[in-house]
Amino acid sequence: MTEPSAYDVIVIGAGPTGENVADRTRAAGLTTAIVEAELVGGECSYWACVPSKALLRPAAALAAARAVAGAREAAGGRLDAGAVLARRDRFVGDWHDDGQASWLESVGIDLVRGHGRLTGPRRVAVRTPDGGTRELTARHAVVVATGSRAVVPKLPGVAEARPWTSRDATSAKEVPGRLAVVGGGVVGAEMAAAWSALGSEVTLLMRGERPLPRMEPFAGELVAEGLAARGVNVRAGVSVSGAERPGGSGPVTVSLDDGGRLVADEILFATGRRPATDDLGLETVGLEPGSWLTVDDTLRVTGVEGGWLYCAGDTNHRALLTHQGKYQARIAGAVIAARARGERVDDAPWGAHVATADAAATTQVVFTEPEAAAVGLTAREAEEGGRRIRVVDYELGNVSGASLYADDYRGRARMVVDLDRGHLIGATFVGPGAGELLHAATIAVVGEVPVERLWHAVPAFPTVSEIWLRLLETYRG
């Protein structure tokens, strides 16, 4: 048995979150190793954010052209599905991670390939691809950044029907003739949009009243209308009770709780995520295997003696979004470096070493048609939190810049104002290109900019950003 390899920091998981933690600790002068069992770059790079947006963007570009007279006449025909899939493949590097692995080497981060598992305080054993084991020890910190996995419900016949998960939906090589999508969250809504645009006959099945249930209600309503206009059969208030695919091939028959049946060529379950911690050795440090890890605002895992274990990204269940995971990674890297040097930890709200934005200013864009973008609290969340608020809505289509952007532009904006503190605590925009409006709202929320000061932030005419002026005018009355 060789002696364990010692590092200042060991990161388990080389997705975007893990890469960013390792980058920050290495930049601070700490020796860092990162452990990865699959591809460097993780879920986002190969099976989530990047391939899904590559699938969605061509349809959005075509829709934008068709929304403007003059361009509309030149934008006939259908998307070239083969070209779209080939472009997707280029963006994911044909599922090879050579480039990202080379980047780790270039910044001095040691990549250890294999399955990493805690074996005790500050100790990680890596089962390598050749069947061997490599023992690692950390002087200061171990960071769990293993992400999450799709959940497939245990319903009769579903496992035998070989359903798609999000990974299959973003990496499929052919367009299914008929696709049943189960779940109206972000993955379900985006994949229904993507595959219907590529020519699939899509049925979206959801238990709730509308897609995107965690956003403002009007967001789900407008997205449902947009999906239906694209040809998606949107069915609300229905649940799947089982599935059949005899012999594991051919069409799949989906059974519904109302007694109905649906036949499709593929079925995608987009019904939630679970933490990728079931074989991580959590029991060796007093934690429950397969659990979400609870962290404090400096991303240190609670309940672990010595304060050496950190968790960033999906696995701590604070915000299952790549950009929020990368934000947490920057915080975790900075706080690990500060504690390693014996420096003071800035753990005040919005301090350098706390992930305040997870609760106050989480951002998200759903790339459906239309786009839906949000930051901070919804009106309902604010009211349930005991805030005294005012909600201001405005139709985006009534803004001059929006009417120039697209004929018959349809969308809506909402800002949620904390009346006691006098600043925004939430904003939602739904409409073509609405995602590009979000960062201004994020700055207003994070900066706690007084609404009266926003009056002096003059939007350029004629841009869609003129929505800010209209919201503020409505607020003033």
From TrEMBL:
Keywords: FAD, Flavoprotein, NAD, Oxidoreductase. Its EC number is 1.-.-.-. It holds the Pfam family Pyr_redox_dim. GO terms for molecular function: oxidoreductase activity. It comes from the Bacteria. Residues 7-320 form the FAD/NAD(P)-binding domain. The keyword NAD applies. Its cofactor is FAD. InterPro entries: Class-I_Pyr_Nuc-Dis_Oxidored, FAD/NAD-bd_sf, FAD/NAD-binding_dom, FAD/NAD-linked_Rdtase_dimer_sf, Pyr_nuc-diS_OxRdtase, Pyr_nucl-diS_OxRdtase_dimer. Residues 364-468 form the Pyridine nucleotide-disulphide oxidoreductase dimerisation domain. Belongs to the class-I pyridine nucleotide-disulfide oxidoreductase family. This is NAD(P)/FAD-dependent oxidoreductase.
